[in-house]
Amino acid sequence: MPDVIYQVDANENIDSNLCIKLGKFFELIERIDNDDLTQHEELKLKKAFLGIYEEALPYNELSYVALKDTIVNVVDYL
Prior knowledge:
There is one protein chain. With about 80 residues, the chain is an all-alpha fold. About 65% of the residues lie in helices and about 0% in strands. The chain contains three helices and no strands. Helix 1 runs antiparallel to helix 2 and helix 2 packs antiparallel against helix 3. The longest helix is centred in the middle third of the chain and has 18 residues, at about 40-55. It is elongated. Residues about 1-5 have low confidence and may be disordered.
């Protein structure tokens, strides 16, 4: 996650909705490791990341805020 301010207590209950979003996020991260991404593939990845971002928008819990900020950083990286 992006910064120390987003550290989440290990005992915090994480709902299944966040787990699903994190799973999708990490699947997309694995695809970035491919150095041979075409511009089209990169655009599809950006759209997929932004889709997760939009799904997380209604939530204000710290875990979701950290996920949203991380997605913004990843999209900027691409």
